[in-house]
Design brief:
Elements lengths: L1 E5 L8 E4 L10 E10 L1 H7 L13 E2 L3 E8 L11 E4 L2 E2 L6 H4 L12 E3 L3 E2 L6 E4 L4 E3 L11 H18 L9 E5 L3 H12 L3 E5 L7 H7 L3 E3 L10 E6 L4 H9 L1 E9 L13 H10 L3 E4 L5 H13 L2 H7 L2 E4 L3 H4 L9 E4 L3
Parallel strand pairs: 8-9, 12-13, 12-15, 13-14, 15-16, 16-17, 18-19
Antiparallel strand pairs: 1-2, 1-4, 3-5, 3-10, 3-19, 5-6, 6-11, 7-8
Helix pairs in contact: 3-4, 3-8
This protein binds beta-D-glucopyranose.
């Protein structure tokens, strides 16, 4: 079968390989891949900056945003041939740490977790993959290809869950608005879930044209292509989804009293930008502010994500998947285009 593989640590080593069928040790459920989403992490892996192959192997099968249809499942494990499924990315560390030991592998404390398509485990970017039932999540068949958005939506569902948990430190706190910085797939999915929670949604992104402004307006949100239209607005929740220094500084400055700033993007280390630490500390302390980071998702968040996508407008989700590339032209998927939001490799196309 065909698979997209990479030599971790080596830039431009990605290729379409002919490989063996998936190993039975990957899990009892055999899935026929329908779609694979591409994200910033994949681009970092492609550039040789991130990712590692399974122990004793050289190449890594890429891909962690999956969607496929069950081809074969042993009886009695809750899955049947024809089920639409998405694979969970992270596996608990073997120690396990207290978090991994209780199903909260997204909060792993010793860093020994593995991740499919990213860290020491083959990904889902092959024509078929295998998965354990406890790491497979059913998707609503009516979602079609949009089920591939479940993984990025799970990251955002976790971010929102934690915002509300932190918010409960003050029982009277009821957020009215959210500012999302960055209208990429993560930012737009954060905006979608914010709108589903009934918050007034504002999205800040530098694009003045293309599909992003309309996607935000379709959620009933307000799109800002610069900070000018934001005026001096402050927000109960700020979701920073760009990982860019200037946007992070902006996000930190926009938090209302008792506000919560959630950092979702992963920046590169080493850039030293000027930042008023005293001013930031003063605002945070005097305003009871909270800033936290979040990564990955556990099973509960995938299930929340599946529900959020099932409730969303199907046309809107299709708009988010701005470019679909058939497997035969897989290289195009890794060449960014100006209007890209979520690029998806269509394994059936
Ligand atoms: C994935 C997460 C993963 C993180 C760090 C993200 O792109 O969505 O599942 O934990 O990268 O490897």
């Amino acid at each position: 079968m065909r698979a997209i593989t990479i030599l971790p640590g080596v830039a431009q080593s990605v290729r379409l390989d002919e490989i063996e069928e998936p190993a039975e040790t990957d899990g009892g459920i055999l899935v026929c891949t329908r779609a694979l989403g591409i994200c910033g992490t994949d681009h970092d892996i492609l550039s040789g900056l991130y990712g590692s192959a399974p122990r004793g192997q050289e190449r890594l099968i890429l891909g962690h945003e999956s969607f496929g249809v069950v081809e074969d499942a042993p009886p009695g494990n809750g899955f049947r041939r024809g089920d639409h499924v998405v694979g969970i990315v992270r596996r608990p560390d073997p120690v396990p740490c207290p978090a991994c030991g209780s199903g909260e592998w997204d909060m792993c404390r010793n860093g020994l977790y593995t991740e499919r398509g990213i860290k020491e485990r083959h990904g889902f970017g092959a024509e078929r993959f295998r998965i354990e039932p406890e790491f497979a999540v059913k998707a609503e068949p009516s979602l079609g290809l949009a089920a591939v958005l479940t993984e990025p939506a799970s990251v955002v569902a976790k971010a929102w869950e934690h915002v509300f948990r932190i918010g409960r430190r003050s029982p009277s706190w009821a957020p009215g608005n959210v500012l999302v910085t960055g209208a990429g797939p993560i930012g737009l999915l954060a905006a979608l879930i914010g709108a589903q929670h009934g918050l007034a949604v504002h999205v800040l992104d530098r694009h003045t044209r293309g599909p992003k402004p309309e996607l935000v307006r379709d959620l009933g949100g307000v799109y800002h292509d610069s900070t000018i239209s934001l005026g001096d607005a402050q927000f109960d929740v700020v979701m920073e989804c760009t990982a860019a220094s200037a946007a992070i500084a902006e996000a930190l400055s926009r938090s209302a009293p008792s506000g919560i700033v959630c950092l979702v993007g992963v920046s590169a280390a080493g850039r030293k930008d000027e930042f008023d630490i005293g001013g930031f500390n003063r605002k945070l302390v005097l305003g009871n502010g909270a800033v936290f980071g979040t990564v990955n998702a556990n099973r509960r968040h995938y299930e929340d994500a599946a529900r959020a996508l099932a409730k969303a407008n199907r046309g809107w989700l299709d708009g988010l998947m701005s470019r679909r590339v058939p497997l035969s032209r897989w290289q195009d998927a890794f060449t960014p285009q100006p209007d890209d939001i979520k690029v998806v490799i269509d394994f059936m196309g």
